């Protein structure tokens, strides 16, 4: 039975790489119907809104969304659409796996880490952001709740158990941020006791950054708060070749959005240069979420073979080809 997936092509290189992912899903026999909607700058140009109601309705109606990158201004301008979507649909869990692929020219060849990040609280909540009238002072509020901490930590342990993982590391800054990080760590310790079959460790965030660079094999599943998770997951992406090889899932009770985690790269938009691997990997996460493991495995194997062989790979993977050639190489293997 065919399932309808909401698709947000996104800004910049988004439409090209999302087109790549849907072509691969079709070739893998997924039998999806796609409902295309807009968000971000593309939506603003077409509708006058960054996040049209039609888009929100489609996401809610279909329950599963595949999304390209959306532009977010730095330091000024409109609020991140990604953050708005997470808050609107209570997508409390951000799941960022990184896996080594032979041929990526990464510094490591044996990385397999999942970063699970609380997605709606902490410094990303947007509470109390203000700048003084004279522009000399700025402040924001970080808020952590017991409910939010319990939900994300339990999600991490359930993920670890389901995927046969051995260890969960709670990352915090409770030595300094004794209130917010302190509550998160307290809850993490309590939840850990419910999972005696999984090794539980804890680490201060700056030490975790250092250990990830020096000895990444120490990590299996990382669970942490919003800001720390944003930083750590990008660091982990660097271990496997960069953001072009890193997908992301935003999961709530009734809805999930799977996305490329890199930016919209407007400088190469429309030039057929982008590596579509991030959104392809996000589509694999989507298939796993939907219980379509066979198709997920087939796409993973095809992608891995293209990258390891160097057949029609993009510039960031050491090749000289573009998005369409790379996509065709994956399709041929399927």
**Anisotropy-based shape:** globular
CATH structural fold name of the largest domain = Isopropylmalate Dehydrogenase
Mean residue pLDDT: 94
The CATH homologous superfamily of the largest domain is termed Isopropylmalate Dehydrogenase
Kindly provide the name of the CATH class of the largest domain.
Answer: Alpha Beta
| Percent range for β-strand residues | 15-25%
Q: How far is it from the N-terminal to the C-terminal residue, by CA?
A: 21 Å
Work out the oligomeric state of the chains in this entry. single chain
Q: What strand order characterises the main sheet?
A: 2-1-3-12-11-4-5-10-8-9
Query: What is the radius of gyration?
Result: 20 Å
SSE string, helices as H and strands as E: EHEHHEHEEEEHEHEHEHEEHHH
Helix count from the secondary structure assignment:
11
The poorly predicted ranges are: none
What is the helix fraction of residues, given as a range? 40-55%
- Biggest sheet character: 10 strands, mixed
Count of beta strands? 12
- Overall domain count: 2
Structural class: alpha/beta
CATH-defined architecture of the largest domain: 3-Layer(aba) Sandwich
Characterization of this structure:
The chain is an alpha/beta fold. The longest helix has 17 residues. The chain has a 10-stranded mixed beta sheet with strand order 2-1-3-12-11-4-5-10-8-9, with helices on both faces. A two-stranded antiparallel sheet has the order 6-7. The radius of gyration is 20 Å and the shape is globular. The mean pLDDT is 94. The chain has 2 domains: 191 residues, Isopropylmalate Dehydrogenase (3-Layer(aba) Sandwich), CATH 3.40.718.10; 128 residues, Isopropylmalate Dehydrogenase (3-Layer(aba) Sandwich), CATH 3.40.718. The protein contains 11 helices and 12 strands. Keywords: Oxidoreductase. Its EC number is 1.1.1.41. This is Isocitrate dehydrogenase.
């Amino acid at each position: 039975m065919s399932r309808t997936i909401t698709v947000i092509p996104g800004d910049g290189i988004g439409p090209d790489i999302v087109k790549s992912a849907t072509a691969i899903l079709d070739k893998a026999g997924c039998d999806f119907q796609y409902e295309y909607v807009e968000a971000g700058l593309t939506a603003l140009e077409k509708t006058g809104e960054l996040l049209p109601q039609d888009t929100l309705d489609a996401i809610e109606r279909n329950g599963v969304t595949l999304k390209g990158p959306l532009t977010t201004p730095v330091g000024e301008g409109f609020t991140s659409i990604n953050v708005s979507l997470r808050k609107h649909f209570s997508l409390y869990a951000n799941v960022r796996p990184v896996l080594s692929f032979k041929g990526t020219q990464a510094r490591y060849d044996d990385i397999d880490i999942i970063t699970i990040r609380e997605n709606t609280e902490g410094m990303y909540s947007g509470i109390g952001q203000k700048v003084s009238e004279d522009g000399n002072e700025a402040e924001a509020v970080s808020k952590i709740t017991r409910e939010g901490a319990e939900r994300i930590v339990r999600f991490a342990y359930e993920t670890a158990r389901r995927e046969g993982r051995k260890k969960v590391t709670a990352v915090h800054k409770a030595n300094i941020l004794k209130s917010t990080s302190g509550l998160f760590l307290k809850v993490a310790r309590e939840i850990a006791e419910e999972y005696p079959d999984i090794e539980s460790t804890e680490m201060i965030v700056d030490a975790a950054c250092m250990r990830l660079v020096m000895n990444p094999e120490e990590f299996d599943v990382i669970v942490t708060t919003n800001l720390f998770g944003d930083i750590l997951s990008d660091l982990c992406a660097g271990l496997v070749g960069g953001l072009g090889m890193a997908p992301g899932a935003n999961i709530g009770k009734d809805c999930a959005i799977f996305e490329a985690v890199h930016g919209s790269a407007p400088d190469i938009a429309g030039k057929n240069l982008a590596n579509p691997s991030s959104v392809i990997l996000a589509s694999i996460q989507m298939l796993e979420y939907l219980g379509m493991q066979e198709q997920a495995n087939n796409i993973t194997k095809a992608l891995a073979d293209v990258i390891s062989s160097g057949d029609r790979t993009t510039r960031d993977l050491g090749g000289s080809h573009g998005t369409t050639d790379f996509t065709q190489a994956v399709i041929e293997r399927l």
